[in-house]
Structure formats: structure tokens, C-alpha cells
Amino acid sequence: MPNEPKIIPVVDILNGVAVQAIAGRREDYQPVLSQLTDSIDPSVVLKQMCDTCESDTAYLADLDAILHRKLNRCVLAELAAIPLDLMVDIGVRSCNDVQTLMDLGYSQVIIALESLPGPEIARDLLQTYDPQSLILSLDMKAGVPMSAWKPWVQLSALDLLHELSSFGFQRWILLDLSAVGTHSGVPTTNLCREWRLERPHDEIITGGGISNRDDLASLKQAGVNGALVATALHSGSF
């Protein structure tokens, strides 16, 4: 029987503060309202979320970097000093972006499909860095892959995972942004189950729509290693 997925708190940073993600509609994101803390300081929010669910791992998304190429360098440097295992998305588009995070002290870098320019860069990343330091995030909206590389958008999620795995990725986030912050259940559960059958030794993380521990039970049966959680922690529904 697989273990219950590890809860991985998520902190989204926009304009230097922690914000609440809703269905991937980033233009609607507002400073976070949380039952855990009155603060919107990313470091305070991060520590409170991890303390609440007793997690030593968290996910950071720098939306200023992802959307506008404006890295929250000072914020990320402060967060890197916190004794937690942090995986970070800054919208990596090149090896230089990965190196920037590693220079700040991060050892786990998210390679988001949404930002990845195409297969050539994917190969460069895996030739330059240890695959265990890179986490490929298959970003979707309503089940459709999000990518600037049009051939990838035309593939099914499972076919796209097959192509990406051929480059050498071994760690995965399967995320449907349309479900984030909705409490509507996790639409990627079946995809995770299929991918686990094909990749029994890989790390598989998912999220989007998690509302309570019943969702974790379903993810456990699907063989998921980690569950990204934000809204359910802030609302107290977990």
C-alpha cells in the first residue's frame, strides 16, 4: 500500500507579497487572506503553513519572474535562508535561470512547461544539471497542456509526458491550473495513476482542487508522492 502523499504548502509571490491563487486567473490574484496568519509577508506565510501541516518541504512560485521576468531576488534570498526543502518556479527559460536559483541557494528547480521554450532547452537543462535537481511541471488548463511550443499543445497530456521523459526528467508535477483554489477535487488524479504505472520509481506530485483529506486518500491510491496545498490550509478546511 503506498504512503499518504506528503503535504507540500504552496506560496505564490506577486508584487513581493504572498497572494491567493484562483483557477490560474493571475489577473485576479489578491494578497492572501489566511486563518493561519494576518501577514502577507512570504516568509511569515511560508513558515506558518509549514508549521501547521508539519511539512519540511514547500513550493514557491515567483509570479513576477514568471509573468514579467522581474525576479523577486531579495525575497527569494530571504526564503532560501529558511531551513526548509524548497522547490522554486521562476519561469525557467534557460540554463542561466536555473543557475540564478542555485546561486541563491536553492537545489530544487521547477521547469514549468508553461515557460519552457521547447525541446532543445529541455535537453540543454538535463545535460547541464543533475536530473534530481530539476522537477518538470506539466502545466495544464482544463486538461490542455500550456506551452509556447505549439507541437506540445497538440499532444495529449500522457503523450507529452512520454516525450518529456525521453529527455531524462525523473521528477514530475502534474498540475491543472483551472482547479487551483477551487476546492473542486483534483482533476489530474487519473493521469497520476496512469503515469505511476509507467514510471514506478519516479517522484510524482500533483495539486489543484485539494479540499480535504479525502482527496489525499484518492491521491494515495493513485501512487502520488506529494500534494500541493494552499487554499485548503488558509481556509482551515484541511
Description of the molecule:
By secondary structure, this protein is α/β, with parallel strands linked by helices. The chain has a single domain, classed as Aldolase class I (TIM Barrel, Alpha-Beta Barrel), CATH 3.20.20. Helix content is 35%, strand content 24%. The chain contains 10 helices and 11 strands. Strands 1-4-5-6-7-9-10-11 form an 8-stranded parallel β-barrel, surrounded by 4 helices. Strand 6, helix 5 and strand 7 form a beta-alpha-beta unit. The longest helix is centred in the first third of the chain and has 12 residues. The two termini are 23 Å apart. The model has no long low-confidence stretch (mean pLDDT 92).
Task: Give keywords.
TIM Barrel; eight-stranded parallel beta barrel; alpha/beta; 35% helix; 238 residues
Q: What's the SSE pattern?
A: EEEHEHHEHEHEEHHEHEHEH
N/C terminus separation: 23 Å
Main sheet overview: 8 strands, parallel, barrel
Q: How many strand segments?
A: 11
Spatial strand arrangement across the major sheet: 1-4-5-6-7-9-10-11
Percent of residues in β-strands: 15-25%
Gross morphology is globular
Helix content: 25-40%
Mean pLDDT: 92
CATH topology: TIM Barrel
CATH 4th-level superfamily: Aldolase class I
Count of alpha/pi helices: 10
Instruction: Output the CATH class name.
Output: Alpha Beta
Radius of gyration: 16 Å
Q: Structural class given helices, strands, pairing?
A: alpha/beta
Low-confidence stretches: none
CATH architecture: Alpha-Beta Barrel
